[in-house]
Amino acid sequence: MEGSPYPIRYQVFGVSRPSDFSLFIDYVAGSIEQRRTNIISLISDGADAALKRWCMFGHLSDCDVFEIECLPDQVSAEEAVGFWRAYFASLGEEIVSAKHICGDA
C-alpha cells in the first residue's frame, strides 16, 4: 500500500474442527479479524479438492478461525505455515493439505 507508514503485515491462522481434531493452516495479508467470514467462504466455496472434502463433514463458522502469529512479510508467512503445519501434526492433529486460499494484497 503506497504512502502507508506501516507495512502490510501477514497473519498465519488456523481453522479448526475440534470434533475430529482436524486443522487447516494458511496466511492472509492484513488482519484475520476483518476477513473471518471471507476465509470461511474461500474454504467452503473454493476450488481446492482437499478443502471441499473437509467441509463435507461439518459446517465451519467464524469462531473456528484463530490467529497463530503475525509476521512482517509474505515469505516469512509462507515459511511459518510450513512450520505450524508440522508442529500441529506432531501433536496428533490431522492437517488438511490444501493450497494457499487467500489472494495476497
Q: Could you explain how this protein is built, in words?
A:
It comes from Paraburkholderia bengalensis. This is CdiI immunity protein domain-containing protein. By secondary structure, the chain is an alpha+beta fold. The protein has one domain: GIY-YIG endonuclease (3-Layer(aba) Sandwich), CATH 3.40.1440. It is 32% helix and 24% strand. A hairpin with a 4-residue loop joins β1 and β2.
Provide the domain count. Answer: 1
CATH overall fold name = GIY-YIG endonuclease
* CATH architectural arrangement: 3-Layer(aba) Sandwich
> What share of the residues lie within helices?
25-40%
The biggest beta sheet is recorded as: 4 strands, mixed
The total of helices stands at 3
CA distance, first residue to last residue = 8 Å
Which class in CATH terms?
Answer: Alpha Beta
Which residues sit in consecutive blocks of at least 5 with pLDDT less than 50? none
The Rg value, from CA coordinates, equals 14 Å
- Tally of DSSP β-strands: 4
Mean pLDDT: 85
How are the strands of the largest sheet arranged? 3-1-2-4
Structural class of the helices, strands and pairings? alpha+beta
% residues in beta strands: 15-25%
Structural shape: globular
The ordered H/E elements are EEHHEHE
